[in-house]
Amino acid sequence: MEQIYTTVSSKGQMVIPAAIREELGIEPGTRVAIRREGPELILRPETLATKLAMIKKMRGITAGGPSLCDELLEDRRRERERELREEGW
């Protein structure tokens, strides 16, 4: 990708070029997340498209791992068995 330059104003503002705004769906009022990575700034617009892309990227991230629901049910079963033994059942 070619580099495009912009200048920071005396108020700390800068203009995102129209071509980039259009490509990324940035409209007036769009929130933009800013993250620092070393000497670089990463700008990420919070548009519906970027949110959907993030959800898609995270889909299945916990697949194959232990089921927390199963673990909780097993803990509760053991707890109930202990309670019944203490009550003399």
Brief write-up:
The chain is α+β, with helices and mostly antiparallel strands and about 90 residues long. It contains three helices and two strands.
Question: What key attributes describe this structure?
Answer:
two-stranded antiparallel ribbon; rod-shaped; alpha+beta; 89 residues
What is the helical fraction, as a range of percent?
A: 40-55%
How much of the sequence is in beta strands? 5-15%
- Total beta strands: 2
Structural class: alpha+beta
What integer is the average pLDDT?
Answer: 90
Could you tell me how far the N terminus lies from the C terminus, measured between alpha carbons in angstroms? 72 Å
Which overall shape is indicated by the principal axes computed on the Cα atoms? rod-shaped
Strand order, biggest sheet?
1-2
Low-confidence stretches: none
Secondary-structure element pattern, one letter each? HEEHH
Continuous helix count: 3
CATH class descriptor name of the domain at 1-59: Mainly Beta
| Rg | 25 Å
The name of the CATH topology of the domain at 1-59 is: Pemi-like Protein 1, Chain: D
Do you know the CATH architecture of the domain at 1-59? Answer: Ribbon
Largest sheet: 2 strands, antiparallel
Verbal overview:
This protein is an alpha+beta fold and 89 residues long. It has a domain at 1-59: Pemi-like Protein 1, Chain: D, CATH 2.10.260. The chain contains three helices and two strands, in the order H-E-E-H-H. It has a two-stranded antiparallel ribbon with strand order 1-2. The longest helix has 19 residues, at 68-86. It is rod-shaped.
